[in-house]
Design a protein that fits this description.
It is found in: Membrane. This protein has about 425 residues and is mainly alpha-helical. About 65% of the residues lie in helices and about 5% in strands. It has a two-stranded antiparallel ribbon. The N terminus is likely disordered.
Length: about 425
């Protein structure tokens, strides 16, 4: 514990002598056993170790089943799940920890401003998404055209209003604490909202760019847990004493193998590989001619493998090669998102972010690695995969003024004529 008492939170100093002392110890609420009674009854008599094993296993299978059901329902339920169910819940869990740990019960406007800033940031990010991916909808609705055209100004004005409200809410004896919570809110927004926005962007590139990464993280969590549970002997990192090298290594190899096979299965279906587009019929359209990434190609095996397998070539989807990179990141670097979360929880002396899911903790406990992997997938896509998208370029052209569209048409026509792509116009006598 620190010894400077109230001054750490801006509660001490001249004129503040009547304020009550505070410490660095958070108010930890006792853990709640929210395991369904039927499970507790069925597992009665087991040791706590095996009881936790079965609870985690049953709830994991339940969540995976729900996840694939949502995938079957289509892109819109997936987006709503990422945005409403997951992002908002993760934000609420982290904000609640700050609210409790820093004893900010009497801070004026703290919770109201936190949720207001969440609204502002979501308006900015998802307004950008609407402008970029819902061109057909924007073109038909004049109010939407206005909102898209001045979107960034409106977003800035909304944020500026919240900023001014925060400054006006500053009160004596709470200055430092209020700035602590202001920073806490903004770091939470950076971690949760910006990265959930990248998840949505990945989804528009094709469901496979969403499903494979999130599935590899799930696979790594499960296989690392199983390998560590049965074979773990060597501690991996002090932040997570239960993590072992055996679980880490076993999770890596099983995740790479799973990602390679799972990518092969999904790459065969247009539903998973085609970009998600919003059609003129006010619905999401997933139909296209698959790109070269999802067309089987012959690959020559290294000489060592040719000797062992007696094959010279194999047919693979190029995406399977990329899946190795995604799976490797999910199993080697992805766990550091979990280690980061473990350090965060240790810093504030809490076991889990919340007790939403029996045996697992809060939603943030399940998505600490997912957000890091989603950011990597987005960087990977923009760096190595994504090229110019003709449909998005066309959407931008269609919202221009007629004279601007005509200028682009004449410029493009002249360019194609000069390069021989179209024959020159036939002149009359």
């Amino acid at each position: 514990q620190d010894t400077d008492g109230d001054d750490r939170f801006g509660l001490g100093g001249e004129g503040d002598r009547d304020s009550k002392p505070d410490t660095d110890t958070p108010e930890v609420q006792p853990s709640v056993d929210n395991t369904p009674k039927c499970l507790n009854k069925a597992l009665a008599g087991m040791s706590s170790r095996w009881k936790n094993w079965w609870i985690r296993g049953i709830l994991t299978l339940t969540m995976i089943s729900g996840f694939f059901l949502i995938i079957y329902m289509g892109p819109l339920p997936l987006m709503l799940m990422v945005h409403l169910a997951i992002q908002i819940k993760c934000f609420q869990e982290i904000i609640t920890i700050g609210y409790r740990v820093y004893h900010s019960y009497e801070l004026p406007w703290f919770r109201t401003l936190s949720w207001y800033f969440l609204l502002c940031v979501n308006y900015f990010f998802y307004g950008e998404t609407v402008a970029e991916n819902f061109g057909n909808l924007v073109q038909r609705d004049e109010p939407l055209q206005f909102l898209v055209r001045y979107h960034r100004f409106i977003s800035f004005a909304l944020y500026l209003s919240g900023f001014c409200m925060f400054v006006l809410s500053l009160v004596k004896k709470h200055y430092r604490l209020q700035f602590y919570m202001f920073a806490w809110t903004h770091v939470t927004l950076l971690i949760v909202v910006s990265q959930s926005h990248l998840v949505i962007q990945n989804l528009f590139e094709g469901l496979i760019w969403f499903i494979v990464p999130i599935s590899t993280v799930i696979c790594n969590d499960i296989t690392a847990y199983i390998c560590g549970f049965f074979f773990g002997r060597t501690p991996l990192i002090k932040l997570s004493p239960k993590k072992t090298w055996e679980g880490f290594i076993g999770g890596f190899f099983s995740t790479v193998l799973f990602g390679f096979i799972f990518a092969y299965l999904l790459a065969q279906y247009n539903y998973f590989v085609c970009p998600v587009e919003y059609s003129e019929s006010n619905s999401f359209l997933i139909d296209c001619e698959p790109s070269d990434l999802f067309v089987l190609q012959d690959y020559t095996l290294p000489s060592v493998l040719q000797t062992v397998l007696r094959w010279k070539t194999v047919k693979l989807y190029p995406f399977q090669i990329h899946s190795i990179a995604l799976s490797s990141f999910a199993s080697l670097i992805g766990p550091f998102g979990g280690f980061f979360a473990s350090g965060f929880k240790r810093a504030f002396k809490i076991k889990d972010f919340a007790d939403t899911i029996p045996g697992h903790g809060g939603i943030m406990d399940r998505f600490d690695c997912q957000y890091l992997v989603a950011t990597f997938v987005h960087v990977y896509l923009t760096s190595f995969i994504r090229g110019p998208n003709p449909s998005k370029v066309l959407q931008q052209v269609l919202v221009l003024q007629p004279e601007q569209q005509l200028s682009i048409f004449n410029t493009l026509k002249s360019h194609l004529t000069e390069t021989g792509m179209i024959p020159p116009a036939i002149r009359g006598p």
